[in-house]
Amino acid sequence: MYDILMAGGWLMLPLVLCSIAVVAIALERYWALLPTNILPKNLTAEVWHQYKDQGQLSNDKLRSLRNSSPLGHILAAGIANASHGRDTVKESMEAAASQVLHDLERFLTALGVIATIAPLIGLLGTVTGMIDVFAAIVTEGTSDASLLAGGISKALITTAAGLSVAIPATMLDRYFGRRIESIAVSLEKECVKFVDAMFAQPSIKSPAKNSAAKRVPAKASATEQKAPVKKAVAQKTATKKNTSKKGEESS
């Protein structure tokens, strides 16, 4: 292994650093995106029972809920604005969901960058190696085919190393991206259940008929107003498309 690294030249150093970064990011994101860390079991039901019994959670409980998990962060944002109406709750949960999704995508950009530049670094190493080989042939005037083949094989080492780094990085980038999309769907379901429960409850002071009548528009608005997590995902997707489109126009 050491001989291969030395034969590849100094450009093997950034490739080694890129490979270490890929492994570190993969381990960190795998742990961070575990379902138990994102959506603790029965958290929505527990928070709802506390809210229903107490009417409003204390600042300490909201802070603890916000720091407990990404789902807790979104639910805490909704509970904190529950007295301001459904629209305000929806907007606050959208903002919290956008922040949560941004945090979940941490380091994925770095994976994408590594997947892009690693083959280019390898190609650069091969090109510089080929230049050295042909320069030596011109200087020494050798016609030994074995010597030429040996020089070319050494020059191709960096290309192989670059691809060895880029392929896993690309696969991990796609894998974690899909995993985040799946998590976003699960977060959306939990948020919809919580908001529907929060605003579909019959008022204690109102007659049963009035409360039953109020349930119909509440359900309609739940269908009408898309879940905060889904809207946050759509906003982030649109931002990525606009960024890539600007990059294409500038290029």
Automatic annotation (TrEMBL):
One of its GO terms (biological process) is protein import. Residues 206-251 are annotated as: Disordered. It is a multi-pass membrane protein. Keywords: Cell membrane, Membrane, Protein transport, Transmembrane, Transmembrane helix, Transport. The chain crosses the membrane at residues 6-27, 107-131, 151-172. Residues 68-188 form the MotA/TolQ/ExbB proton channel domain. It is found in: Cell membrane; Membrane. One of its GO terms (cellular component) is plasma membrane. It comes from the Bacteria. PANTHER family: MOTA_TOLQ_EXBB PROTON CHANNEL DOMAIN-CONTAINING PROTEIN, PROTEIN TOLQ. Belongs to the exbB/tolQ family. This is Biopolymer transport protein ExbB.
